[in-house]
Amino acid sequence: MKRIPCMEAVVSVLESEGVDTVFGIPGAAILPLYAALQHSSIRHITVRHEEGGTHAADGWSRVTGNVGVCIGTSGPAGTNMITGLYTALADSIPMICITGQAERGKLHQESFQAVDIVEIARPVTKWSVQLKEPAQAPWVFREAFRIARSGRPGPVLIDLPIDVQRGTCLYDPELDAPFPVEVPEPTPSAVRAAVDMLARAERPLILAGGGVIIGDATAELRSLAEHLQVPVQVTLMGKGAFPENHPLFAGMAGIQTQTRWGNAAFLESDLVLAVGARFGDRHTGDLEVYRKGRTFIHVDIEPTQIGRVFEPDLGVVGHAQPTLAAMAAEARHRTKPQRAGRWPRRVEELRDTMARRDDFDDVPIKPPRVFREINEFYGSDTTFVTAIGLYQIWSGQFQRTFLPRRYLVCGQAGPLGWEIPAAMGVKCAFPDREVVAVVGDYSFQFLMEEIAVAAQYRIPFVIVMINNEYLGLIRQAEIPYDMNFAVDLHYGEGGIDHVKLMEAFGCPARRIESPGDLAGALAWASAESAREQLPVLVEVMVEREANAAMGRSLDTIKEFEPLPRLAHAVDWSD
After folding, report:
1. What share of the chain in percent tops pLDDT 70?
2. For 68, 322, 428, 494, which has the most beta carbons within 10 A of its beta carbon?
3. In 3-state terms, what secondary structure has residue 21?
4. Is the pLDDT of residue 572 over 50?
C-alpha cells in the first residue's frame, strides 16, 4: 500500500462520498488540506464568513440529500461555524465542518487562535472529534460521513491540528469505500398495529414531517394516503412531502406557519399518524388542546424522539421510507383501494371555505399579495429558500409547494441571514434550477456580504425581499408588554438602501411599491438573473403594521360543528 500525505487521503474520501463542492475560507492552520484540495475534482467556493459557509453547505445538503462540507482555519473560524452546526443539528441536516488547529504540543500554551473547538461544538453536533494521528485521517472521515447520514442525520465537526495535517498515511482509494448506513425497518407487529388503528379511525390524518423528505419517502407516503384515502397534512419542515394541489392535501396546522382550514381539519380529526415529525412547539401550541380527542401514532427513525414531547398511543421506530412502504403493503393486502368518503370531502369543504384572502390591491402592499404573485409566476420545480421572521410566517401560510426539496427553511434554530448563503448552496448543487430566496430586510443584512461571493462566482438566483422597514416580528411580540423598545431600524432614516447596496456589488435590483408591478418585477428578475448570471433583488415595500398569526391558533380557533359519527372509514372486506 502506498504512503501518501494524509490530507490527500482525506480529499480522496470526500470525492468518493459524492462531495463535488465545498465552502470555506483558507487560513494558515488549514493550508495542508487546501494544498491537497487544489488537485482534486472538488470545487471550492470561498465565502466571506464561516457562518455563511456553513449555511451554504447546509443548503447544498438539503437539496441534494448528501453531506455538505464547510472548511475553515483555527480559532474564530470554528466559533463562527457554531450557528451553522446548531441549525443543521436542529433540522437533521448531514454536514461536516472541518477546522484547522494549532500544533498538538501548543494547545495547552494558549497558542495563537488555539481554542478547544471540539468541546465548544460538542452540544451542537452528533460527533465532535480532533484528529490525533495522521494514520487515522481517512478512517475518521469515513466514520464522520457514516455518522452524519445515520439515524436522525446531523452535523459532525473534525478538528485538524496542523502537525497532523502534515503527516502521511498508508492508503489506497481502490481498496476503500463509504461505510454502509443502516436503514432501520419497523417490526411487522408495529406496522400491523398502526394499520389496525388507521382502520378503526373515522377521521384520520397523516402528518408528514421533515423526516419524510429527508428519508426520500414521498412516493411511499402518497401510495398509502391514496390507497386508504387518508388526508395528509405537512409540518413546515415537511412542505413538499405531499403536493399541495392534491385532493387529499389537508393543509398545515400550527400557531404561526399554518392554514386556517388546516387547523380546522386537525381539530376535527380523531387519529394522527405522524411520520418524521418532532412535534415542535410552533406546530403543536398548547399540548392539551393539540392532543385532546385524538389518538397518535408516532413514526421516527430516532428511538429517543418518541415520547420526547408527549407519549403517543403507538410508537414505531423505523426509517420513513420502509415504514410507509410496509404500511402501504399491509393496507393493500387487507383491502382494495378506497374511494374518497365523507371525511376527505369534509377536508375539501374546509379548504374551499376557509382559505385566506390574498388578492389585495392596497398600497402599501399587503404581504399575502406578494405570495399570490410568487405562486402564480414560479413553476413547481423552483426551489425556495427562506429563514425566520414575519416573512417566513407569511411564506408558510401562503406559499404553495408541490415537490420535495423545493422548499427549504431553517426550522428550529431560525438563524437570521441563512437564506442568501443557503440559496448559493442550492444553486451550486443544481445550476439549471431556478432558485428564489425569500428574505426580510433585517435578515438580509446579517450575511449580505455573501452577495459578493455569488457575484464573484456567477451564482444566479432571485431575491424577493419583504421589507416592512423595521423589526416587525419583534414589534409584534412586544405588543402584550405594551412597549415599543429598540425597534428603530427605519428605511430612509439611517437604514440601508438595498437597491444601491446590490448595485455596489454589481448586481441588479428594483424596489416595488405597487401590487400591480409585482408580476413584471418577478419576470424581470428571473430573466435578468439568467442573463447576467448574478443574484438579482426585488425589494417589495409592504405595509409596516402588517401582522401575522401569532399565539395559540389551535386553542383559540372557533370549534367547528363535527361530522355525525361515521362507520369505519375503511372497508376491510374482500
Report:
1. 90
2. 68
3. strand
4. no
The residue ranking higher by pLDDT, 193 or 114, is: 193
Radius of gyration over every alpha carbon of the chain, rounded to an integer in angstroms: 25
Q: Is the pLDDT of residue 367 over 60?
A: yes
Q: Do domains 3-175 and 367-541 have the same CATH topology?
A: yes
Cα–Cα distance for residue pair 38/48, rounded to 1 Å: 19
Cα–Cα distance for residue pair 209/412, rounded to 1 Å: 13
Strand partners, 536: 462
pTM of the prediction? 0.91
Quick one: pLDDT band at residue 476, thresholds 50, 70, 90?
low
Answer with the residue of higher pLDDT: 254 or 491. 254
Mean pLDDT lowest among 131-135, 321-325, 389-393: 389-393
pLDDT category of residue 396 using cuts at 50, 70 and 90:
confident
Spans of all domains in the chain: 3-175, 188-355, 367-541
Distance CA 64, CA 425 (A): 10
Report the side by side order of strands in the sheet with 204-208. Answer: 232-234, 204-208, 271-275, 295-300, 314-317
pLDDT of residue 568: 41
The CATH topology of domain 3-175 is: Rossmann fold (3.40.50)
Helix (H, G, I), strand (E, B) or coil at 437: strand
CATH of domain 188-355: 3.40.50.1220
Q: Which long-range contacts (CB under 8 A, 24 or more apart) does 525-534 make?
A: 525/462, 525/464, 526/377, 526/434, 526/462, 529/460, 529/461, 529/462, 530/460, 532/460, 532/507, 532/508, 533/458, 533/459, 533/460, 534/454, 534/455, 534/458, 534/460, 534/506, 534/507, 534/508
Which among 388, 465, 523 is positioned nearest to 91, based on CA atoms? 388
DSSP annotation of 135 reads G
Q: Which CATH class is domain 367-541?
A: alpha beta
Bridge partners of residue 438, in order along the sequence: 386, 464
For helices 518-532 and 367-377, what crossing angle results, to 10°? 50
Cβ(522)–Cβ(377) below 8 Å: yes
Q: How far apart are CA 341 and CA 229, in angstroms?
A: 8
- Could you give the angle at the alpha carbon of 557 between the alpha carbons of 554 and 561, nearest 5°? 110
Is residue 574's pLDDT more than 60? no
Strands 3-5, 168-170: pairing is antiparallel
